Amino acid sequence: MRKLYFAMAALVAFGSVFTSCSDDDEPKWNDDDSKVQLSESRMYILNEGTMNQNNASISFYNPGEGQPTFITDVFFDQNGGRLGDVAQCMIKYGKNIYVAVYGSNYMVKLNTACVEEERTLFSSDPELQGGVRYIAAKDNYIYASFYGGIVAKINASTLKVESKLKTAGANLEGVAIEGNSLYVANSYERTTNPETGSNVYNYLTDVFVIDLNTFSVKETLVVEQNPNKLIEEDDKLFLISNNYGRESYVLQMIDPAAGNKVSELGYATNMAAGDDMLYLVDSRTDYSVRPFVTTNTFSSYDIKSGRLNSASFLKDAPSELATASVYMMAVSEYTGDIYIGVTNYSSSNGTMYRFKQDGSFVSKFDCGGQNPRDAVFFN
Question: 153 CB contacts (<8 Å, ≥6 apart)?
Answer without folding.
Answer: 141, 142, 143, 161, 162, 163, 164, 165, 215
